[in-house]
Design brief:
The structure is a homodimer. By secondary structure, the first copy, chain A, is an alpha/beta fold. Chain A has helices at 5-14, 118-123, 149-164, 179-189, 213-226, 316-324, 341-352, 374-381, 392-405, 409-416, and strands at residues 21-25, 30-35, 46-50, 56-60, 66-71, 91-96, 103-106, 111-114, 133-138, 169-173, 190-191, 196-200, 231-237, 244-249, 253-255, 264-266, 273-276, 281-283, 296-297, 305-309, 328-333, 356-361, 385-386. Chain A has an eight-stranded mixed beta sheet with strand order 9-6-10-12-13-14-17-18, with helices on both faces. In chain A, strands 4-3-2-1-5 form a five-stranded antiparallel beta sheet, with helices on one face. A four-stranded parallel beta sheet of chain A has the order 20-21-22-23, sandwiched between helices.
């Protein structure tokens, strides 16, 4: 739905257009901010303006409200793909894939839809243009639960195109649900990557007051443009307040809360860096630096790999057929990497059938160790590959990648137990 | 293997027997502690003594070592089922199930075997006899990855027997791998429980210096004997040092590290209490008190329930047959409880076939909300039951229990979305 006649009249009287900075005076207060796009499903009487703090507020237009244009969009250097490049600034490519970071709320139903174009996103974040020259495009517009091997491959290729065209870094706005899977997939596919690729998301859509889209995007731009780091990273809020973001290694990061803005954590690793929303970048862990690799795109993935969590009473019989329909399976075992005796037997059979079977821990923290208990030694004898302190999700993605690189099971084992992209620590003592 | 001739001669000379308190003098130092049982696979030259701190040390007996008995076991009140009951003390039953807490290390291979009897366990922890009268028995001697519905039922019945025989509380030493599943199962099966049942484990076997078996057992005895609480709990170390244990609600606890002693955490809930190893009990959250329920054993469980974690590219076709082989399935979806569009379609089919489909979040922290995104609303239309902030593992066990109580799908839905044993919070605002 468009604006109501009343709202349109008020905006027309003021001569206000999308992107203009407005002063909106109510009976008791006034707000100043940039007029945001009006969406099809938004309330027809409400305008949304983005405050200087990055927060969006919705204001209902009625006879008590007075709107005044303070700064016209045409008069500002609007940051977009059409903006004149500043030769002194680095170039960052933004490749949109969808998700909450590029979404808006349907105010009739309260539901969230993917909507904004890459240009809209940049228009909503003018600060980026002072940090870098931006080239933006939308590759996908999907919720991340619908990402799959084919989508990862398309994304990896799009990133390589941007790098070959000279981008100093690439930002990938992405749905948070499966962002950790995609960052792991890109980590393995973009071998020898010599600059940063940063996946960034939001837990609140960009038209909501508490949105983290703005702050996370600016921090990602800053990191991509200026940080001396290479590799695939995920950047999200560090805490519940708007002070800083953490940059996580793409193979070590997991979404650990369904709704908080600080949902993402590095597991079994220290975050790589902290980016304050005031602008500073502080490194927290060793990391590869820029310009030291030679990019080789290894974009073949084997989709027939399953991830299964062990639980008491898991029925080997009904899982056997499922596993046989796959070329590989990653178990998230209990504790140090255990399954029931009956499941060990079934996994031994699957392994002898040629299925690659890898073991991680459902504890998430800590490592697999198959040398402590009898169950673990039985699993080793069954041919199960222990995955150390690799996340189950990363092990799934890595096995998809490894099985597309080689059919030799001993090479599969060697690759799965080698640290390729920071996904695996050297074996540590079990006493913490 | 038994002690070597040399070790035997040294012990015989000293007149030292198992359970005696020894002073062991070496060339440069001396240690004082209780002589522990010698196991079949232990080093034949090494004795293990338990220090007053609860730590065990192994000491190699050779010509430089002098052993002296300081206190004979017979002269002390040996705490065991044969100990004379002290009418002033509460009675606590210990029902052993196996696991590391009742294990010892095979020094040839470094592997851990379940071994100690319940009496051995108590003999190793003399402090318990000053806290309560103990009745101990070994019900199972298995690693907890081999627990299943049938084992849970047997354990629930054994607990009811002990309560009917007058136990003021029950301690269940249990392997840590699936302790959270068992505590959830007991929570639902022991309806109206009016005293504490405490599952306790160890991450280091009882003959290792860093064992947490001793401290956790003493803290469990103290809580069972004295705390004004009822329900099923898990008690484990609070931090890496030996200062205190946390008591977690049985439906809210998860093993979050494969090896640390402080591996157990309450998820989406505050731990119920803190027990300092010096003896105090401090409550941290609301909890049911003693003597307010009427125990009804509801020990039927439906084993044909599966737990599945969603991942990108999950193949609906191969999972459909698996799900149809079960009466219920709990998904650990991404984010607020999502799966891919293809999986939604398949789950709708399974639900219309009569399979109970429940949704949790693989984030573990936070809650499911199927009203925010289009995917969630599609899942509601598909008949999927949202499980709020319930742990995936607890939802699995609860669905096993619910499907054994009723075949009516609307009653299944009502029970799954009701808080029965503290497993589910009232719906909260998503903006934490």
């Amino acid at each position: 739905m468009n604006y109501s006649e009343r709202a349109l009249a008020i905006l027309k009287t003021a001569g206000a257009k999308e992107g203009d900075t407005l002063l909106v005076q109510g009976k008791d207060d006034e707000q100043k901010g940039v007029l945001m796009p009006h969406h099809q499903f938004s309330d027809p009487d409400v305008i949304v303006i983005k405050l200087k703090s990055g927060y969006n507020v919705g204001i209902r237009l009625n006879e008590d409200v007075f709107v005044k244009v303070q700064d016209r969009a045409e008069e500002r250097a609007r940051p977009s793909r059409h903006a004149k490049a500043d030769a002194a600034l680095p170039t960052v490519a933004i490749i949109g894939t969808g998700g909450t970071i590029a979404s808006y709320v349907d105010y009739r139903t309260g539901a969230v839809h993917p909507a904004l174009s890459a240009d809209d996103l940049i228009a909503a974040v003018p600060e980026i243009s002072s940090i870098c020259n931006v080239r933006a495009k939308v590759l996908y517009s999907i919720f991340s639960e619908n990402m799959d091997c084919a989508a990862w491959v398309g994304l990896a290729r799009a990133i390589v195109c941007e790098i070959e065209a000279g981008a100093d870094g690439v930002i990938v706005p992405h749905g948070t649900d499966t962002m950790g899977f995609t960052s792991a997939a890109l980590s393995f596919m973009l071998e020898g990557l010599d600059r940063p690729v940063v996946l960034v998301g939001a837990q609140r859509s960009s038209d909501r007051p508490s949105s983290d889209a703005y702050t996370n995007l600016v921090a990602a731009a800053r990191f991509c443009a200026t940080a001396n780091a290479s590799g695939v990273f995920v950047l999200m809020h560090e805490g519940p307040s708007d002070t800083s973001a953490l940059v996580h290694r793409g193979t070590r990061v997991r979404k650990m809360h369904s709704s908080r803005r600080d949902a993402f954590h590095s597991v079994n690793a220290t975050p790589v860096a902290k980016v304050s929303f005031e602008g500073s970048v502080e490194f927290l862990a060793d990391h590869p630096v820029r310009g030291t690799g030679k990019l080789v795109l290894r974009d073949r993935m084997e989709p027939k790999v399953a991830l299964l969590q062990f639980y008491p009473g898991m029925d080997p019989e009904s899982f056997y057929a499922l596993i046989r329909a796959h070329r590989g399976v990653v178990l998230a075992g209990s504790g140090l990497g255990h399954v029931s005796a009956k499941m060990v037997e079934m996994l031994a059979k699957a392994a002898s059938d040629g299925v690659a079977v890898a073991m991680t821990t459902q504890c998430l923290h800590g490592q697999v160790n198959l040398n402590v208990y009898a169950t673990g030694r039985d699993l080793i004898n069954a041919g199960v590959v222990p995955c150390g302190d690799m996340l189950p999700e990363t092990a799934l993605v890595k096995l998809m990648w490894v099985l597309a690189q080689t059919a030799d099971i001993s090479e599969v084992r060697r690759l799965m137990t080698s640290d390729l992209q920071g996904e695996l620590s050297p074996r540590r003592e079990i006493d913490d």
